[in-house]
Amino acid sequence: MRKFFTSLFAFFLSGLAGGLVVQWLAVATNADVEYILVFMISALVTIFATLAFLIAQFMSDPQRATKLTAIIGVAFFVLIGVALIGWTFSQPPGKRQWSSDLPIVAGLVLPGIATVLVQWLFVRWRLGRTQPGFGGAGT
């Protein structure tokens, strides 16, 4: 039951962190309605990250599994960012829209990285705390 509560609190904290990053980017880039997509994807990333870290907590070595999950999650978003930036720069010069493409790329990548890092930090903190079993015997 402890793992589910850990994931529930991590869900709320990482959703808040990802939402704050999206909100900050939207204000900083004077975003318009196109950021609705970024907000929706940020919520989906929070759900999938929570599920991934919940599964990692049930592994035989949960600290190692959560670390690996965090590394894979951050690497995934870095690769997505590099691919989207590469795609933006590969467009013909007449079709390039720097002012609208790059803020969306940042809005898709940075909140995902923030979400994964907050999930990892909270789950790692909760896994590091040992809870004594019945009769004072450690688990």
Describe the structure in your own words.
This protein is mainly alpha-helical. The mean pLDDT is 86. The longest helix has 31 residues, at 98-128. The chain has helices at 2-28, 35-57, 62-90, 98-128.
**How many E strands?**
0
**Element string (H = helix, E = strand):** HHHH
Helix content: over 70%
Task: Give the class from helix and strand content and strand pairing.
Answer: mainly alpha
| Sheet having the most strands | none
Task: Specify Rg, calculated over alpha carbons.
Answer: 18 Å
Distance between the termini: 15 Å
Low-confidence stretches: none
Mean pLDDT: 86
User: What general outline do the C-alpha atoms trace?
Assistant: elongated
Beta percentage is under 5%
Number of helices, where a helix is a run of at least 4 consecutive DSSP H or I residues:
4
